[in-house]
Amino acid sequence: MSTQPSQHPGLNLGAPHAEAHSANEEFVFGFWVFMMSDLIIFGLLFATYVTMLGGQAGGPGPSDLFEMKSAFIETMLLLVSSFTFGMASLSLKYREDKKWLIIWLLITLVLGLAFIGHELLDFNKMFDKGGVPSRSGFLSAFFALVPLHGLHVTSACIWLLALLGQIAVYGLDTNVKVGLTRLAILWHFLDIVWIGIFSLVYLGGLA
Amino acid sequence: MNHLSDLLLGRLGWDALPFWEMLKDPTTSSIINGIIATGAAAVVILGALIVAGLLTWYGKWKVLWRDWLTSPDHKRIGIMFIVIALVMLLRAIIEAAIMRAQQAFGLGGGFLSPEHFGQLFTTHGTIMIFFMAMPFLTGVINYVMPLQIGTRDLSFPVMNTISLGLTAAGAALVMVSLVLAPFSTGGWSGYPPFTESAANPGAGVDYWIWAVTLSTLSSTMTGINFAVTIYKKRTQGMNLMRMPLFCWVSLCTAILMIFGMPPLTVATALLALDRYLDFHFFTVDLGGNMMNYINLFWAFGHPEVYILILPAFGIYSEVFANFSGKQLYGYTTLVIATMCIAVLSFTVWLHHFFTMGQSAHVNAIFGIATMLIGVPTGVKIYDWMLTMYRGRVRFSIPMVYALGFLILFSIGGLSGIILATPSVDYQVHNSLFLVAHFHNMLIPGLLFGMLAAYNYWFPKAFGFRLEERWGYRAAFSWIIGFMLAFFPLYALGLLGMPRRTVTFFSPAYLPWTLAAGVGALIILFAVFCLLMQLWQSIRMRHENAVPVGDPWDGRSLEWATPSPPPEYNFPVLPEVYSHDPFYEQKSGGKAYQHPEQYVDIEMPANTAMGFITAVTGFLMAFGLTWYMWWLVIGAGVATLIAVIARGYVRNTTRIITAAEVRRTHERWLNEVARTTPITRDHERTTANKGLAVPPEQGAVQ
Question: Is B26 helix (H, G, I), strand (E, B) or coil?
């Protein structure tokens, strides 16, 4: 094991260190397992959404409520934030460059917050058009699935802030690095879930 | 003033007290029901006061805090899980007995109100599944599995304390519902639309939703923890196909928890959205569809059945091998069968609603899938029988449970095959036949397994054997009581008696309900025996002490440690070359070795995270139940702060020095040297100090 300098993409724990590496291995693997479990929740909500597409009960449907433009903007915000998080991981791995790491993380955070803000505006517009969750089963399913993703992004932003605080206090110690590795997994995972939402909810709904 | 109390207490009012109805409207029925409910509430309050009083009297608060509530040690957490399970078992069994009494007197009346009866069967089911069975098996796996794979702890010890905290919070919520009533009347499965606010506006269903949600979050985390531990922390040489079978079932159970628990989290969360925010997932109007719930619930519910049963299969595998003095027969086939069961368990959920209007083809496919599970289960039954074949079988208490299981579980399996036939299911679904079937699987399959584990591993955990006379009485009363209480229900189901019936008008049911009532009394006696056994064992703990740690001539690594094992389990992590590693060590004269050198051991430091999540989780759920929004927000913010603050903690471990490890280990080795080994013939006598004669001199197989 000690022949491999780094076992984790985006992470550099310094000189090969068997103990730290194997402890880290467990943390990252455990987080992947948690992601699988979380994906079941999203999968079931996707399934619920699809089965309830017909349950509009005479209320507004996808074509009355969804706007391609704003969904596209949200997609771009999230995709770019995944890219900037990738840049943050690279500056952690190859340069151990604290300044650029923090800059990339801050850009990511701003993009994440912009995504949430835009999504909230979007929901507000839907509300104005009568698209409230209590209106129909279809809208209930929409408002269980999409805001849950938004809630995940919010938690990820809070986590990012907490990690920035840890960097300020402890610098780039192993805990911070492992934390960033796991947050990166979450961040890219949320991107993938959003691709699902964009394709299935928005493209599928408007098709 | 009134406004303020609304803000503070939400919808919690005087009418939540269990005796309120009786005082306001004193009819015979309300007085009887009120007295029962008040008595139960008094027991909860008295129990809490007595525990707190005893802790103060003996000055044990600090010990409780330091050694238990904040301990990340997997062994202590396992024991605490089991304590929760046993307390909840007591309550749920008493409720079962009251229900059996009601049906014994139920011809044209009985003494319970339908509302009260509804709460009884809902709490009984909810507790037995989520707060008895799950904590019990989680506790046993928590205790035993890390020892068996030769590691020091689980992968995520802090998360383990949080899992325990969430289960404790859920259990506390169910207990509080006795004092501040009502609980749900919607059954343990909580089917809408009956559990929607239109039909069931009170706090009862909300209690159920949050108790169950706390429990499922706990189990999901536990599953992740167990799976990662088994994948990543096995000791050197312990490849997957050398793991004891109990570890294999732990792995499969963990996988089922990871994938099987989220559907229930989704189901209860969506039900909560319906109730709190007027969503329309499962309502009857505005596009809701209750079949969504039923699909989600059983996407959890069926894997759950195997989460419950698989750990017991693992326990029986250890018990049969150990008390037959033989290697487990057909190890590989048992592993494959376990995996098959784990996979198949996700493919059969629809058999829970054969009668709800899907096509005959769909029913047929799920019927066949259901029957298929009988195949790997049958393989297991034969493997266990062949493990006993030509073994030197000792008729110990775990073996009594295991043999009772073998026969009764097969009968239950056969009735399951009957139920899996859709056409038959149309006749007997939602009748007592079904109730008889699943109790027939879960009591011998789960509970007997857990009680076997309790008798088998208790000396490992506490350093003394359990008393045997009351133990045998308990085991036999359980078996006989179970048969008398549940076999009549098969007949009642075939006669057409629906489940969850508070009263009935057909005299043909009466003899059977009376017989079942007598069975319930025998089960109550069995529980009394269990309590007596524990009491007698504690009294006789010095005579029955087995400090060396191997009272049953064991085969796997947990028996290679002292009883109770030190916090770090092994001074040096063992190396494994075969199945039954400890048995091999003993045969080769390599057991109880002095390590070449001692090193410092790094263990997780104590943490209050579990305790904090228990408190905040409970307060949040309680606030949600009674609409005390300030409490919900406050507890939520506190949880968030605790989680963020935990990220800033850097001193997460503490060192146990090599000198201390040496002292502890050498002291134990001296004790081993002083102790006279005994043969298996004497393992039930007071000569047993936990050291077995080496296999070649003792009973050889």
Answer: coil
Residue B621: CB atoms within 10 Å:
26
B542 is catalytic: no
Residue contact A41–B227, C-beta within 8 A: no
For B168-203, letters b (16+ CB in 10 Å) and e give: bbbbbbbbbbbbbbbbbbbbbbbbbbbbbbeebebb
- How close B296 gets to chain A, by Cα (Å)? 8
State the CATH number of the domain containing residue B619.
1.20.210.10
Q: Do B228 and A26 touch (CB under 8 A)?
A: yes
Residue A1 covered by a domain: no
Per the structure block, which two tokens stand in for B352? 């829970």
Give me the residues of chain B with pLDDT under 70, please.
1, 697-701
Distance from CA of A187 to the nearest CA of B (A): 18
**Yes or no, beta carbons of A26 and B292 under 8 Å apart:** no
Answer whether A170 touches B (CB < 8 Å): yes
State how far the Cα of A7 lies from the Cα of A26, in Å rounded to an integer: 12
B377 is catalytic: yes
DSSP secondary structure code for residue A199 in this structure: I
Tens of pLDDT, residues A138-191: 999 999 999 999 999 999 999 999 999 999 999 988 899 899 999 999 999 999
- For residue A134, give the CATH number of its domain: 1.20.120.80
Q: List the domain range (segments joined by +) for residue A127.
A: 67-202
How many domains is chain B built from? 1
What is the extent of the structural domain holding B388? 59-682
B396 catalytic per annotation: no
B182 upstream amide cis, omega within 30 of 0: yes
Nearest C-alpha of chain B: how many angstroms from A55? 4
Which among B211, B118, B227, B218 has a CA at the least distance from the CA of B161? B218
Is B692 within the bounds of a domain?
no
Specify the pTM.
0.96
Residues of B in contact with A170 (CB under 8 A): 650
* Interface contact flag, B281 A173, Cβ < 8 Å: no
